Amino acid sequence: MATWMTRSSLFERLVLGLIMLILAFIMLFPFWYVFSASLSSYQDIVSGKIILYPTGFNIAGYKYVLQESGVVRGLINSCILVTAGTAINMFFTVTMAYGLSRTNVPGMKVILWLVLLTLLIAPSLITKYLVVRELHLLDTLWALILPGAIAPFNLIVLRQFFMSIPGELIESAKLDGATDLRILWSIILPLSKASLAAITLFYAVAHWNNFFDATIFINNPALYPIAVVLRQIVLQGNLPQDASAVTEAPPPDLTVQMAVVVIATIPILLIYPFLQKYFTKGVLTGSIKG
C-alpha cells in the first residue's frame, strides 16, 4: 500500500512538473521568438525559418536602432522615471502606510476611508488632465510621477503588513525613547524587506510600461519614455529618420521593430533576479497574514 501511494505521488509530481514546463514554454516562447527574430536575417523571418534559434545572424537592427537618438532618449527618460518615480512612490507610500497603521493617529479612520474611496471612484481623464495642467506639469516628467505618487492598493497592502508587526516591539522602542522615525527606520523597515521589495517591483514595472499618461501629458518627443517610442515604431511604423544618415542601407521595418521590442523589454527584466527572493517571500507572507 505504501509503495502504491509513493508511486502515485511520484506520478502526480511528474504530471504537475510537465504541465508547468508546458505553461512556461507557452509564456516564454513569444519573447524568445522576438529575440531570435531580432538577430536573424529578414529573409529567414518572412520565410518562417525561425522557430527556436536565430538563423542568418544579423545585428543590423540593433545598430540601426541604437543610432537613433529618440530610442536612446526614451531609454534615459524611462530610467529616470523608474529610479526617481519609484523612490518618490516608496517614500510617500511607506510613510503614509506607517501613519495609518498606528491606531493613535488623529483622524486615521477618516483618511483611511478616503484612501479606500479612491479605489472605488477613480478620477476621470479630464479631471486628471486639468489638475496636471493647473499644476504646470504638462510636458515634464513630473506629470508621470506626482499624480500617481501613492497607489491606493499598494498603500493598503503595506499598511496591513505594518499592522501585523507585533506592537510590543514598537512599545518597547518608545519606552527606550525612540521616535516614530527611528522606529520606522530601525524596526519596521528591516522587518518588511519582502513586502517592500514586492511593492517596489510593482511601482518600477508600472513606470517602465507607462505610455498612456505620456501620450496625454507630454507633447515633446524629447521627453517620451521608451514605451511611447516603442508604440510609435511597432504600431504606427514611425521608424527612425536620423539613423538613415549613418546607415547606408537601413534594415527592413520588421527587423527594426523586433530589435526595439527586445531593447525595451530586457532592462526591466534585469530587475527581477535581484528582487525575486524577496518578492516571492513578500507575496507568500501577504497571503498567509491576509
From TrEMBL:
SUPFAM superfamilies: MetI-like (SSF161098). One of its GO terms (cellular component) is plasma membrane. It is found in: Cell membrane. Keywords: Cell membrane, Membrane, Transmembrane, Transmembrane helix, Transport. It is a multi-pass membrane protein. The keyword Translocase does not apply. InterPro entries: MetI-like, MetI-like_sf. It comes from the Bacteria. GO terms for biological process: transmembrane transport. Coiled coil: none annotated. Gene3D superfamilies: MetI-like. Belongs to the binding-protein-dependent transport system permease family. This is Putative ABC transporter permease protein YtcP. The lineage of its organism: Bacteria, Bacillati, Chloroflexota, Ktedonobacteria, Ktedonobacterales.
